[in-house]
Amino acid sequence: MSHHTLDARNSLCPMPVIKTQNKIAELQTGDILEVTCTDPGALNDIPAWCRINGHLVKDSQENEDEVVIVIEVVG
Description:
single chain; alpha+beta; Translation Initiation Factor IF3; 4 strands; 31% helix; 33% strand
């Protein structure tokens, strides 16, 4: 299991989801991806994409101007 980060700040919908999808395609089952975004819509969009594709959202937080979502990659 490896921990990876993705900086999707300053990207508007749908780019945070697309960047997340592309990064997860490079990862292995059990890897953790921490995505940082400034688009508040990502707080709903990325977890919805994860549900559809079978990945687990381990945590999500909304700070002042950033959203951080932690995903576990599922095979």
